C-alpha cells in the first residue's frame, strides 16, 4: 500500500516538486496545506501516515505544528524541512516528535523512504 503524505509548505512550487518526488517513490499526496491552521486540520481529517512540514510558515511555527501532528492518535511520521539548512537541528526535531530535519536541497534522494522507514540520515 502506498505511503500517504501530507505536504505543509507555503511555497506552492516546493509542494508540487515534493509531490512529484513522492509519486516517483510510490507514495501518494494525501493533501496539501500552506499554513499551520490548514495543516493541522488536514492532518486531523485526512489521517496521513506521514507529513513533510516547512519550519517557517506564514501563520506560525512549523516546529510547533510538527509537534502537534506527531502527537495525533494515528502518530504520523513528520519530517521538518527548510530552505535554511540551519533552521533546526536534528536533535531539536527529534525532541519535537519529528523523525528529523532535512534541508530542502537534500530531499531529492529518498523522500518517501525517509518517511516510510526512517532509514535516511537526517541533517
As laid out across the biggest beta sheet, the strand order is: 2-1-3-6-7
Please provide the count of β strands: 7
By CATH reckoning, the class would read: Alpha Beta
Strand residue percentage: 25-35%
**Shape designation:** globular
The low-pLDDT segments are 119-123
CATH architecture: 3-Layer(aba) Sandwich
The SSE order reads EHEHEEEHEHEH
Question: CATH superfamily assignment?
Answer: Response regulator
Distance between the termini: 28 Å
Q: What radius of gyration results from the CA coordinates?
A: 12 Å
Structure, explained:
There is one protein chain. This protein has one domain (3-116): Response regulator (Rossmann fold, 3-Layer(aba) Sandwich). 37% of the residues lie in helices and 26% in strands. The protein has five helices and seven strands; from the N terminus they run βαβαβββαβαβα. It has helices spanning 12-24, 36-46, 62-70, 90-95, 111-116; strands at 3-8, 27-33, 50-54, 56-57, 60-61, 77-82, 100-103. The strands form two sheets. It has a five-stranded parallel beta sheet with strand order 2-1-3-6-7, with helices on both faces. The protein has a two-stranded antiparallel sheet with strand order 4-5. Helix 2 (36-46) runs parallel beside helix 3 (62-70). The longest helix has 13 residues, at 12-24. The model is unreliable at 119-123 (pLDDT under 50).
Amino acid at each position: 500500500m502506498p505511503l500517504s503524505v501530507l505536504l505543509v509548505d507555503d511555497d506552492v512550487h516546493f509542494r508540487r516538486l515534493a509531490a512529484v518526488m513522492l509519486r516517483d517513490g510510490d507514495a501518494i499526496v494525501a493533501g496539501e496545506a500552506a499554513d499551520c491552521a490548514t495543516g493541522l486540520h488536514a492532518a486531523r481529517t485526512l489521517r496521513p501516515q506521514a507529513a513533510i512540514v516547512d519550519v517557517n510558515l506564514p501563520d506560525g511555527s512549523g516546529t510547533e505544528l510538527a509537534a502537534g501532528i506527531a502527537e495525533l492518535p494515528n502518530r504520523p511520521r513528520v519530517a521538518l524541512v527548510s530552505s535554511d539548512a540551519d533552521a533546526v537541528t536534528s536533535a531539536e526535531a527529534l525532541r519535537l516528535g519529528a523523525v528529523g530535519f532535512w534541508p530542502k536541497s537534500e530531499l531529492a534522494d529518498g523522500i518517501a523512504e525517509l518517511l516510510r522507514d526512517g532509514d535516511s540520515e537526517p541533517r
